[in-house]
Amino acid sequence: MQIKNSQVLRTPNSPTPGRPVLFNPDICTGCNICVHFCMEDIFLPAPKKGEVPQILYPEECWYCGNCVDDCPEPGAIALNHPLMQRVRWKRKATGEHFRVR
Amino acid sequence: MADTLETTNGAVDPGVWPYPIRYGQVKKFESDVVILGGGVAGVWSAIGAARQGAKVILVEKSVTARSGAGGAGCDHWQWAADNPCSSVRPEELTQALIDNQGGYRNGVSTYIQCASAYRALLELEQMGGKVRDVDDEFKGAPFRDEASKLLFAYDYDARFVLRVWGNDYKPLLRRECRRLGVSIVDRVAATGLLTKDGQAGSQVIGATGVNARTGEFNLFKAGAVINCMSRPQRNWTFSSEMRGISTFRPPTNVGNGHAMAWRAGAEFTMMEKSMRSPFASPYSYPSYGVGNAINTWFACNVVDTNGKEIPWVDANGEVITEFDKRHRPARGQKFFIMGGGSSSHPHPGLKEHEGPKLIPDLAERMQKGEFVPPFYADLTSMPDHERRVIWGLNVGEEGKTRIPILQTYSEAGFDPEQDMLQTYDFLRGSGMREPVTPQERTFGEQGICGGMVVDWDLMSTLPGLFGAGDLIYGSQDYSHAAATGRYVGRRAALFAVEQNNGHCSQEQIEAEIDRVYAPLGNAIENGNAGMDWKELNAALCRVMQNYCSEPKNAELLDLAEIWLDDIAENEAHKMVADNPHKLMRALDVLDIMTCDRMIVHACKARKASNTHLHFNRLDYPEMDPPEWHKWITIRRDDEGTGTIVDDMPIAHWGDFESNYQARI
């Protein structure tokens, strides 16, 4: 592994163990509609046209999903439950186990 | 999913704030009616007032199209006894709901709900909302009225709770507000009430607010103010890292309306009620997102790990063998309320109205080996209509289910025809969710809680200040917010036309400007030495956990008050905020502190233990002494130095129908 000293940054820890909202930059157009509809105002508008909005306050996300529901580009945003809150289910016929991914 | 998508997740390069900064700039508004809080109650209040021809301004901390506890959806339209299929009259249902809470439920607003919820729903239909099964998805289902195509829940004989497609109701309500000419001011957090001549206890003539993106100060003068700001939350539990998922109602709901009405001198009641609950725990699972048999999931089959079905029992304790009987009253009952054991949780409520539920001795029978955990909600073995209505309508339309549950689980492969969703509620045999520590309590997160005292006009004890929705003491529900908003909008508009805009006190406005902007000044003066809103919120929760939890006594409550005074004097006024968003959060926490004080004062005032208020005083151990079966009211004195305690008879509202009919 080759990592230059100059590539290692003084980064703080993540403010939350969750990553509530994930963007697909290939689909997101940076229209900022999610920024408009967020109840908790966790986003900042996309800094430049064509970029994705930024998440400034992820720990304040209520996980309501309105950003996904009101997004005009299906697949641009995904709601992402924290790992510890991903629920399991069992297929009745086979007994196989699955969970939220 | 996480491997291919990206998130900035707080890792934003420090740079300048993207919105224009307008600290100290004052923008003035005037209207007949100003509504504070644009949730379900707020938009309906605006609609009610605008229909009277009033000039209406609606002020919302967040975004009206989606804000509030009902902004993300609604699946049950509760207590609509005015619908043509209901076999129970509004008077009878109101009384049953009150009795089911041991008397501690608001008769005025519950009656308004029971008598007009269906009318409000029909108006929503006119606005474009789907309220009946027009696509015949559930044709022939036992919960469907074939003539009207309305769908019902819980008690299929009584038919006073409807299943509705409420995911898009909030955007439709906002559109109706705009159509009626309501001015909507989004992203402005109301901070205080203006009173005549600046005196606490006087007529309310306006309000103040601060923009959560620009920091601009807003001044609203009005003939009437409607307080629609929901309830306090985060008084006992607060996770600084997982805050969003740790409140049942949106984290924007912190009791701003309670705090500012208290400062203005309005009377409150039932503030001593709080309860042990997992609802506010950061470890809670996504709402409605685990298998269970209550509320949105009523009356789902639950099986153990070997597929053995957990039996259901009715109010008489008799085992129910046919599925359909889970939705019918028990022998000797006229009707039941909700079912699944949740009607007045954690108390079973009155046997007379107790609904079917899973066996109450599941824990003991599990210990003996009769049932083996883990347990699962088994939609696969449900009748087809029931499976599709739970997974698809209820889960899908209910708040916070369309995307977080229905879409997320479906995309991960969950198939209700094949799969059984694990229930985390029964791992230890509990009938609800996982038990939590005694210190974890909720005030506004769950159930019926304390709030502003209102009369039959839904006006508070301060002239000109009205209330609707969850802010009103002893009430809850989406349809309650809709019905009371619709009603109070009209009452407030009628009141407003008779008022001359009173004299605003410049002194009061300047004092509020100083209070609102103090955290910004502290940040400049103290920089990193100051405390932020999160540390203060966490400390306040600790005070409430230690000294206002369960059980209580005078010494503990005195210590709670000493701590709150101490924090107010030494830490709270030094709190820092360095942008408009954090300023809003800082002001929220100051309001949480005010609500804590109200709660502690109310707890000190009730010198008796009370079952239905979940109130246990070690120094007054006798449960429910009859002389204390009354509402204890509190308000601050006009100087703001003490609390005035009074009481009201339990059924102080008089006759329901004549009082209501005189005002519609």
Task: Walk me through what this model shows.
Helix content of chain A is 9%, strand content 17%. With 101 residues, chain A is mostly beta strands. Chain A has one domain: Alpha-Beta Plaits (2-Layer Sandwich). The two termini of chain A are 29 Å apart. Chain B is α+β, with helices and mostly antiparallel strands and 664 residues long. Among the domains of chain B are: 295-423, no CATH class; 506-648, Methane Monooxygenase Hydroxylase, Chain G, domain 1, CATH 1.20.58. Chain B contains 15 helices and 22 strands. In chain B, the strands form six sheets. In chain B, strands 1, 2, 6, 7, 8, 9 and 20 form a seven-stranded mixed β-sheet that branches. A four-stranded antiparallel β-sheet of chain B has the order 19-10-21-22. In chain B, α1 (40-51) runs parallel beside α4 (169-179). The longest helix of chain B is centred in the last third of the chain and has 26 residues, at 580-605. The model of chain B has no long low-confidence stretch (mean pLDDT 93). β5 (88-91) of chain A pairs antiparallel with β17 (419-423) of chain B.
Could you give a quick summary of the protein structure above?
The complex is a heterodimer of chains A (101) and B (664). With 101 residues, chain A is mainly beta.
The largest chain-to-chain contact, stated as pair and per-chain residue counts, equals: A-B, 57 and 63 residues
Number of helices of chain A: 2
Largest sheet of chain B: 7 strands, mixed
Shape of chain B: globular
Structural class of chain A: mainly beta
Radius of gyration of chain B, whole Å: 24 Å
For the record, the CATH class of chain A is Alpha Beta
Strand arrangement across the biggest beta sheet of chain A: 1-4
Q: What's the architecture of the domain at 506-648 in chain B, going by CATH?
A: Up-down Bundle
What's the multimeric state? heterodimer
